[in-house]
Description:
Blueprint: E1 48-49, H1 89-114, E2 126-128, E3 140-142, E4 151-157, E5 171-174, E6 183-188, E7 205-208, E8 216-219, E9 226-232, H2 243-249, E10 257-261, E11 264-267, E12 270-272, E13 277-281
Amino acid sequence: xxxxxxxxxxxxxxxxxxxxxxxxxxxxxxxxxxxxxxxxxxxxxxxxxxxxxxxxxxxxxxxxxxxxxxxxxxxxxxxxxxxxxxxxxxxxxxxxxxxxxxxxxxxxxxxxxxxxxxxxxxxxxxxxxxxxxxxxxxxxxxxxxxxxxxxxxxxxxxxxxxxxxxxxxxxxxxxxxxxxxxxxxxxxxxxxxxxxxxxxxxxxxxxxxxxxxxxxxxxxxxxxxxxxxxxxxxxxxxxxxxxxxxxxxxxxxxxxxxxxxxxxxxxxxxxxxxxxxxxxxxxxx
Length: 285
């Protein structure tokens, strides 16, 4: 009985906003096998490390005052009969003025509240309520010191794919449900955009990072990192069976495994995470 030189498929680590993706990267051992950076044991080589994505973490009743009830007395001899007075012109004018002021104040409050929605967020702002299973209608702009803030806005662009070009972007979210919506390019609050996975090029190194929404980040080439030999920008059709050939065709000299990276794409209560980049890496440093 013979064994395949390519080993068996490796386990894909999960990564999510606010979730811990798994154990630290392990040391791959067999040549040209199937493996995943980050496995706790010696992984076989040439597996896809594709994280599973998720997310980064009494009303008071009011009564109506009831006035004193005035009993209606039957008219008697010598008792004046009440008459109904029409409201004066001055009273009508004052009432109208009060209503206009009330409507103006109410409109201003509504405008101020709508100002915290995603549509009014811009570069440098933070947002809350963006995550898998969360209705984007409830997402809003918040102060970055707010504990509910999960993402920071790196830029606002006109299309989802434009966010892939913004250094450090981990996720993209539409500002409205309209087809003409702008998109916010997001990074986990507190993360360094210069270490974003979409900034990695051949010759750089990467590491797994549980604090990053997508699980990996650019790193110095110190111990525990993986040298990136090639970056594939069109990952369609890549499988474990052809990954070695695809990586060598892209310029990798001696690839041992590969990483798939995806920018999270939020819409309504769903999130998509199809691969946008593939990193062909060599043996662990």
